[in-house]
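pinned: reference chain
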Amino acid sequence: MRVLVTGATGFVGSHLAEALVNQGHEIRALVRQSGDTSLLKKLGVEVAYGDITDAAAVEGAIRGCQYVYHLAAKTARSGVSKKEYYAVNVEGTENVARAAIKANVERLVYGSSAGVYGTTTRTPVGENTKPNPNSYYRESKLLGEKVMLAYQTWYMSRCA
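pinned: its structure tokens
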């Protein structure tokens, strides 16, 4: 099975790519030109250069993949503006969702953040815990979740 992983040069994404390779899957990673691809290349991962904010690059990377793991994001450590968090974590996520539907992928998995619940003192959080993001990053990840839910709802209604 061919799988696309966005965010494969990050901590979680690189470990996911390695696990998927070890399971025998063909992996393609959508990475920015500035990304360190040495581990991915060592694993035999196909590298597609681009950015999730570029819809055409996302469509090209997804083409031919059955599964997509969307982990790419501007993180809390990125130190960027609210506008850039929104562009990557919301609009970029929408590009991935749109391209996945267009390519008829079997499964799209979105990696969000526990940060959407804000700074919590009560653990564990669960499905009924109310989101309370308290930073631009956390707000943008919650909005990314809402994008994914909207596309899922639209897709399911179209298939019914």
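why pinned: Helices lie at 11-22, 38-43, 55-62, 82-102, 136-159. The two ends are 26 Å apart (CA to CA).
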